[in-house]
Amino acid sequence: MRAPWIVTFLIIVLLLGPVPAWPHAYLVKSAPARRAVLLHAPTRVQLWFNERLEAQFSHLSVWNREGKQVDSGDVQVGPDDLKLLSVGIGTLAPGPYTVKFRVLSVDGHVVEEQFPFTIRGSP
Amino acid sequence: MTGLLAFIRAVHLGALVLLMGVFAFLLLVARPAFRKADPQRTPDLERFDRLLLTIGKWSLLATFVSALLWLGLQAALASGQPLTQALNLDTLSGLLSGTQFGRVWEIRIALVALLAGFLFFRDREHDVRDWNALRLEGVLLAGGLMAALAWAGHPAATEGPARSIHLLADTVHMLAAGVWLGGLCPLAVLLRWAHRSPDASWIAVAREATRRFSLLGLVSVSTLTLTGVVNGWILVGSIPPLVGTPYGRLLLLKLVLLLPLVGFAATNVLRLKPALLATAAQKSPGGAQAVLSRLTRNVIAEASLGAAILLIVGGLGITPPAIHDQPSWPFPFRVSWQATQDLPGVRGGVIAGGAGVLLGIGVLAYGLRKRRQYPWVIGLGSALVLCFLAIPLYYLSVDAYPTTYLRTPVPYQAISIASGARLYQQHCTVCHGEAGYGDGPAIRGRASARADLTAPHTALHTAGDLFWWLTHGIRGSPMPGFKDSLTDEERWDLINFLRALAAAEQARAMLPLVEQTPWLVAPDFAYGIGVGEGQTLRDSRGWAIVHLVLFTLPSSIQRLEQLDAAAGKIAGAGARILAVPMRDAAQVYRRLGARAVTLPVAVEGSEEIVETYAMFRRTLAVEGLPAEPAHMEFLVDRQGYIRARWIPPEQPGWDDLTSLLGEIERLDKEAPRAPAPDEHVH
Lengths: 123, 682
Fold this sequence. Notes:
The structure holds two protein chains of two kinds. Chain A is mainly beta. Helices cover 10% and strands 37% of the residues of chain A. Chain A is elongated and about 40 Å long. Chain B has helices at 2-37, 42-79, 83-86, 89-98, 100-120, 128-150, 154-157, 162-196, 200-235, 239-244, 246-282, 285-317, 337-340, 346-369, 376-396, 414-427, 429-432, 463-472, 488-506, 557-565, 567-573, 588-592, 606-613, 657-669; strands at 333-335, 397-399, 520-521, 526-529, 534-536, 545-551, 575-581, 602-604, 632-636, 641-646. The mean pLDDT of chain B is 89. The interface between A and B is large, with 47 and 66 residues.
């Protein structure tokens, strides 16, 4: 039988391997801000989180008052900032909108939230 | 599905605990016990060893299968798809390669494979070293599997320096649980075999195994207590989350189950073990058999309680940690020194009660010493302690509500304060008055006690208390509840507005000179310059002082031009200017016209910024200052506190640029301090 220290060594190598330090996932900032009333419609909805996101498990969508999805579906992480989740929106008419998002946190919990914003339109 | 996930986690943990227990028991208890009791009993040891290794193999299989199921459920949970759809190559590979859970899972499966290789393809063991090597590998690999689990659970999400402490505590907690709880099963088997065997030397084995295992148990239970307290401190932190959140209540249930478990263990160690050891001298196998039978029964009871505890632990793992959750306080009162210390009679009551408790403890101690002669003195002492304890509790307790310990889920931001201000106008002024002094038309002239909403906040009421009153009203007063007319968010908006209102009242004495101690938190806000990307005031925290300029056109135009010309100097001193139009934000560039003002002007978001910061216009009636100023300037330091204010034509003022630059430089030279309290709740 092999000496136990080989196994000990293997375990130590496996455990000290590159396990990244990830804290709990939460929204740091968004543009538009939660409940913002905007003069100019933005071209993208952008959400900044406190940790790197995985595109596979990050969902983001924008809905209008009638419950119709109005984003262009091109949800992306980054490209430069891996904590940034964004989606494009076409030219939005004045009115209230809802942003919905869902991301996976490092301890396996799912963080799911939504917030409204309004476009007032410039006079 | 979360229920299923909790169950799978419990099964996985149970299998791991058993795996650890089997190997640790063979190595630390069984072999030494057999060798000491009777070196000739090698066939019995081999038979026992074979059975335990078989249990180990099945546990490993259960570990593997439950890990597979766990992966599937996690894929469904993470992707938000139903289980059947989530089990596709794309989702699984994304989970495995792209998430912490997946990476840790891969490492753990590798450990399972390694251990499986050792267990299923083992050579014949030639000597003791060979024998020890396999069991030690089992212990180490099972330990590795447990340690890796901590990296995919709550400890991995702990922030700051507590993280490595939490990882270590959680790992050691699991290891100790494995050695102790997992060892109970092998112990029960060994005791049962000894009980059934007519052979006296089997009883000697049982005796030695019990002696060794009780030592192991003692070490494990102490370790479990210590690491459990550390984990609880990090994940629960205080009493309200413990009694008010699902996580905290599950933890309490776990502790309730733990009490009888420790009770059984204590009976075994304090009564049955000495009784069993005493039978060594008696030579009568009958007495030993009776003790063994009771001991076996207790060990099986312990193991069942342990299994129940593992079920709870499975649930704890998928419940958000109490410290991140919003507690619902279950009692109608709370005990707080901070809140009551300045109330009349409190200090006296606490001192009197404390003295009484000390007296009671003295009587109790006397009673315990003389318990043979005066057993009733113990009862008297206990009664005194309890009675006198009630006095300080009475004085220190304040009314509390289920929402008392809620942290505000709506940050202290301009958008919330401005919304609160509008709601206040609609719903509150009729009684509380425009300015919050409690002089509204509906109650004017009435003798009822009115709340002065501008009074500084005291520790007597938490934000959660205010939320309860706004929601349900105040019993015995005209204050109605707004549960049906305002949403949760709107009620928190009102609370944020009240906080700003009280702060503005306290800030009346603020001058264009930097105040020594920061105390006035600058409400955060989001803004957009032109059509550019959205930013927040917070973004400047830690690196720039913000010179906030609220202006009105055309009267502010000269001042803007003056600041524009000095922008380089101001930036050089460490501040960035942010100009916010007080009116007609959409027209601001048109109205600036051909004038070369290149200052950043917050167009988006200006309305709520102005509505909020205009609250800080209240001054100590200085002669000549306008009641509704058209121009105001603030200095916000790097920690997010408003430190100085200038409302023209106040003199001396910042129209003298050297005095403005001087104030900025003073802020710039300050050593970094703690940032303004974080409003983030997660």
